Structures are given as C-alpha cells and as structure tokens.
Amino acid sequence: MAFEGKVVWVTGASSGIGEALSRQLLGRGAYVILSGRQTDALERVAANAPQRALVLPFEATNWDALPDAVDKAWNWRGAVDILVNNAGISQRSLAIDTQLPVYRELMEVDYLAPVALTQLVLPRMIERSLGHIAAVSSVAGKVGVPLRTGYCGAKHAVVGYFSALRAEIESAYGIPVTVIVPGSVKTRIAINAVEGNGERRGRSDPNIERGIDVNIAAGNILEGIAERKKEVVVADGIEGVALQIMRDHPEKLYEMTSQEGARLANMRNNAGPGTALDPDHSRLVQP
C-alpha cells in the first residue's frame, strides 16, 4: 500500500476533506498527524486507529506556535513523509460589500498559513532528500468568479507558490509537490464561509449539497498523491467544463463569469446593499 507506514500530516483534519483524508489514511496503514482547531473532532478521527494517530491541535495563523508544532510533529515518528496543507475557509460576498479585514483573514488562513507551515517543514525534508508536499487549492484558484474575490485571490496564490516551489525542489531534491483542485464537494465549507462583514454564512449552497461525496473526493486525492501527480483535479459538471474552457477559450469563460457577475449585481441593486443573496447564487464555480 502506498501509504502504509508513512507519516502524513493533515491540517484541517477535523472536518470535510481533511477528515475524510485522515480516516482513509488511517485505514491504509499510515501514521497520521491530525491538526485543526477542534480537539474533540480530531480525537474522534484518531479513534479509528489511536496507535497510529497524533492529535496536534493548533491555530493555523498563530505564527509563534508553528515552530513548536513542527517540532512535535517531526519528533513523533522522526520525520514527516507527506505534508497535506488542507485547512482553509471560503467566501460568499461581492467585493463592493466586503470589508478589508475579510480579505486579510482569507489571505492569512488560505495562503499564508500553508506557506508558513511548508517553510518550516521544507528544510527538514530537504535535509533528508525525502518527502512530499501537497496543498489544497480550488477550481476558484484557477478561475476568477463572483462572490469569491478574496477566496480566488488566496487560492490563486496557493497555486502560484506551490507551483514555483515544485520547480525549485522536485528535480533538485526529489521532493514532489501536488496541488489539489477541488470543485464542489459536499462539506460544510459554504456554511463556514465568511461574508462581507466577517461573519460566518451559516447556510450551505445547493451546489455544495449536490457536490461530490467527500469520501470519493478524498480517495481521488490520495490516488493522485500516491502517483506523485503535479495536479489533482476533483471536479465534475460545470466546474470541470469551466477548467476546460479556461484552457481552450478563456474569453468565453470570461463572458460566462461576467454574465453571472451582472446577475448578482442586479440582485443586489434591486434588493439593496447588505441583503442576503439567493442561496443558489453561484452557478459557476464552488466551493
């Protein structure tokens, strides 16, 4: 088995894709370091194979705490073979209604946090000339869509950093870098998304509810990591089509996103600023 006996560190392991990845990794014989903010949830995941799980809760943007977390993770089994940067939050607000602190939070959680953790783990992997780094971006890290200006910015940055990192370390040190590009996966990501005022949205999206089963998504992601793929796309329907159109006919994709932006602007103007938009508003790209 590709993961049997490997030490895998998963952030955002208490729910969603991170939880599903962790459960499957434990089922495949891996030693899994479970990180996130919800200790009780992490312990429930660890209960699947407690002898091969380390619960290591921390706040991803607590920069001062990261070096100690890395020490604990590395010292548990003497190394980290695979780092999966998964923790993140999404957004549901038009730019005109979004306050600057929301952009800061999205960039810190979705971009700077995985960069900071990777920067601390990277020298240790390079010293061994052994390891594998993965990061969860999004279809929104490839396509700019309405209601996601901050999220798209952060996830585009994730693609940029980890793609550049791959160029620096894969051939030089034999350390592959995998960028994961999910579309709609049935999780709580929309419920936990931030709105323009910084509050959590508190409700899901129909697209998310109709999304790919999280366990199927996790299985596809692990298959891609096992095959050392540079990019793992987990998207179907309109999102898969959007990626293809972006490659082949970018102007056509712009027309599609622009039409959606105009529809949302009309909704906002008719309802008044600050009014919650139709829960089925995002017809193009999730999460």
Give structural notes.
- Belongs to the short-chain dehydrogenases/reductases (SDR) family.
- Residues 6-186 form the Ketoreductase domain.
- Keywords: Oxidoreductase.
- This protein is α/β, with parallel strands linked by helices.
- It has a single domain (7-271), classed as Rossmann fold, CATH 3.40.50.720.
- Helices cover 48% and strands 10% of the residues.
- It is built from 9 helices and 7 strands.
- Strands 3-2-1-4-5-6-7 form a 7-stranded parallel beta sheet, with helices on both faces.
- Helix 1 (16-27) crosses helix 7 (214-226) and helix 8 crosses helix 9 (250-271).
- The radius of gyration is 19 Å and the shape is globular.
- It starts with 6 loop residues before the first strand and ends in a 16-residue tail after the last helix.
- 43% of the residues are buried.
- The model is unreliable at 278-287 (pLDDT under 50).
Per CATH, which architecture?
3-Layer(aba) Sandwich
N-to-C terminal Cα separation, in Å?
31 Å
Give the mean pLDDT: 92
**Number of folding domains?**
1
Q: What does the largest sheet look like?
A: 7 strands, parallel
**Low-confidence blocks of residues:** 278-287
Note the overall shape: globular
Which structural class fits the helix and strand makeup?
alpha/beta
How much helicity do the residues have? 40-55%
CA radius of gyration is 19 Å
- How much of the polypeptide forms β-strand, as a percent range? 5-15%
The CATH superfamily turns out to be NAD(P)-binding Rossmann-like Domain
- The number of E-state strands comes to 7
- Would you state the CATH class? Alpha Beta
Q: How many DSSP helices?
A: 9
Succession of helices and strands:
EHEHEHEHEHEHHEHH
Give me the side-by-side strand order of the main sheet: 3-2-1-4-5-6-7
CATH topology: Rossmann fold
Region (Disordered): 266-287
Domain Ketoreductase: 6-186
Family: Belongs to the short-chain dehydrogenases/reductases (SDR) family.
Keywords: Oxidoreductase
